[in-house]
Input
Amino acid sequence: MQKLPPLSAEQIGIFLEATLEAEFSFLRLDDLIADIAPLPRAQQDYLLDWIKRISTTNIEIAYQFAGRAVSLLDKLDRRVLETWALTAMDTYDRTGLRDALLVIRNVEQFVHSSEIRTAGTVFEDVSGILLTFVHGLSGRKLKLEQADAPFTDSETLFLPAVISWMSTVEDNFSLAKAMVAFQWAQTRFGSFRADLHEALADYPDQTHALNCFFALETLRLEACLARELPGLTRDMLRLKQQSGSAALTPVWQAFEIRLAHPDTSVETSLACVAEAYPHPAPQPVCYQGELRPDIVAGVLAARLEREKMLLRVKLSELVDDLHKQQDETEKKPPVFNLKPPEEGNTPQIDQFEITLNDMPIAPPDDVRQLITSIKLDLGDIPPEYLTPAGDGEYDPRLYQDEARDPDDVWQGTYHEDGAFLYPEWDCGRKHYRKNWCVLREKDVRPAEPGYVKDVLARYGGLVKHLRKTFEAMRDENRMEKRQVQGDEVDIDALVEALADARDGSEMSDRLFTRMHRSERNIAVMFMIDMSGSTKGWINDAEREALVLLAEALEVLGDRYAIYGFSGITRKRCEIFRIKRFDEPYTPEVKARIAGITPQEYTRMGVAIRHLSKLLMEVEARTKLLITLSDGKPDDYFDVYRGQYGIEDTRQSLIEARRAGIHPFCITIDREAKAYLPHMYGAANYIEIDDVKKLPLKAADIYRKLTT
Output
């Protein structure tokens, strides 16, 4: 391939003047042009490309980057250079121009931290994976956050921003996982059931006593993890060896043997402190982290008070529900008891049976979770915790979630609290803007309940036709080819088998076809455009189509959800709940469909990301995301209008496909061919202008995507 000649100073000047808007920004470009001109063409192209990317975010940052980057092209790895540029742009998004320019100017400090990050595990990159891992373990549902050191307060697991103590990325990730597992073990196996201040108060050197206790607990918890998670324990042992942990002295080896017994508890560790105190504590192991008893004590006290109140209130509600089903003569004073299950080995902490007046009951999940959490803290449930709360014993404001109107929240200074934050693809930057969009879910306000009945009366013949069509889809058989036995010969398979036999290969015995009725396992999310441009006949068409589709889908039996979307600017993106997946098609849902009204603008990328997330939480073999919209992405006085919004929407659809979701768009925009093929693909959208055609087309889409 022929190498291109370097760009001339004149060519570079023309590019920089246009990219950095020199006519309006008054930036001096002569020195920069003189620095870039002698570079090889590959370096020129690389540098100018990044200047253009950064300029879409801020021209001053791009200019400062160019001035510094020229001298670094031969000194730094390209990945470090690119991370430096992206960090500056992300900083600009979060805290503004001043801090972004500090990132550019302090390039030496950034390079030093980047060298650490190259082999290190970054909290932002792995927190989602580690949180999923933690949620798969028994016990209470824990949170994961960033802090200055690894420790836990018994509700949240904390990790540092970067873990770089090991030499490779893989080992540093394993270390982060080990830290999380060790902190979980502290909450799961009762490390915080003792009052350490009281237990260690008589020791002259309380810091040394606490270190001895933590070392003893570490030995006990390692044994617990070896029984619970043997595979991870092998990795933890390897990490200890690689980090150079010193071998235990004979005294501590004896403690290790004693604390390995399954019947040990935190009391066993405390009992060993007196013997261990005269000896130096072992060096902390790499995943041990810190023990912060003051923080734990505060969190624990608040949680016990809150959960005692909640459990007693929930038990009172259970009694009330039961009494509604009984005659007055059958009502007895409620007595709750807890006992382990009758069968099996030693029960887990979340395995127990609840009885009310000696009769077993099936408690709701929230009651079971409360009992599990209290058992983790206390080891058992005190009798007073199982006494239902009396009328008026607790102020309802202490245990009832205060409903806040999202419209009121948007007005506040801290309107991002409790909202969902999503990234957005910046096509100029060719990178995501992190936590760029602020999204809240809202309920559609129900409208006239008779609306659905009127639509069904108006389209009675079409409804009958749709029901028959969807019934046929539900009952249709599918032909399975290349079967060992069946009703007909599979001609294609037979031809291939005969060809194999002539070549001397083994002949396949899968030579038949058969008809098979397979169970449908489909979840479909309808994403409805509620932007202001749908006002009028488009909004009427959307609502009528949803009524007809819902009636047909009820016959088919597939799981489906309906959500609307709109918003104004990236700071106020809204999703409107119309029907959830687990919600039946009730009169309330019908009233919400009637209540679909035009709102603001069409920021589609964030809506697709949020609804894809909801769709991924549903267990289904086939997952569809069907968008019903009247036009292309748009927002108020925003760069989102135009190519930026189209590319962000396209990227969100790529993310959905990677997650196994099949997106499809039904549009009422006559100009859709100009942008939808690029966003959805040529075969994944349809243009329609008649509501009567929409449900019929949806049936065709279903057949195409699910067969």
About this structure: DSSP finds 27 helices and 19 strands in the chain. The chain has a mean pLDDT of 85. The longest strand covers residues 431-443. Residues 9-119 form one domain.
